[in-house]
Amino acid sequence: MGNDNFVIIGPAGVGKSTTAQLLAERTRRPHVSLDRERFRYYDEIGYDRAHADELRKNDFEALLRYYEPFNAHAVVRITKEHHGAIIDFGAIHSVYDDPQLAAQVRETLSPCPNVFLLLPYPETDRSIDFLIDRGSGDTPLAPDQEAMWRRIIRRFLERSDNASLATHTIYVSNKSSDDIVGEMLSCIV
What we know:
alpha/beta
C-alpha cells in the first residue's frame, strides 16, 4: 500500500517548515511538523527529559545520539497517524548512526513516492557555509559553537541516509519559497 503523505527532509535551517507550510496551503493538505509533535511520541517509549536536558547542557552531540531511537519511533508513528499530509521532519529525524534505526525509517518511508530532500547546494562545504550564515543571522557564533555546528551539519550532509530516503532532491539557494514549492509540485508522483 502506498503512502499519500509528502515528506520534507533536510538539514537544519534549509527551510523545511516554511516550504511545508506553503506547500500545504497550495495543495490544501494539512501541515504536520514532526519537531512540534515528536515529544508525545518520545514519551510513548520512555523518553527521559531530565537526562536529555543534562546532555543538552554538557554534550549536544551525545544528545543527538540519545534521540535516535525516539526519532525513529516518531517517524513511524507520525506517518501512520497522518494521511494526505505535508510532513516536515526536523533535521535529526532522517540521519541515524544505528543501522537498524536507519533501516526502520527507510522501510517506513519506502511506500511514500514524495519524499523531498531540501539542500542549499550540491556541494557540502558551500552548503555548510550557507546554513551557518543563515542560522547565526546577525550574531556570529562563538568559535567552539561554530565548529560544533559545522561537524553536525557535515554529518547530516555527508551521510547517505537522506539521499536513500529521498525520491526528489531540490537545491534551494537563490530560490524563493514560491519557486521551491513550484519545483516540488512539478515532481509530485
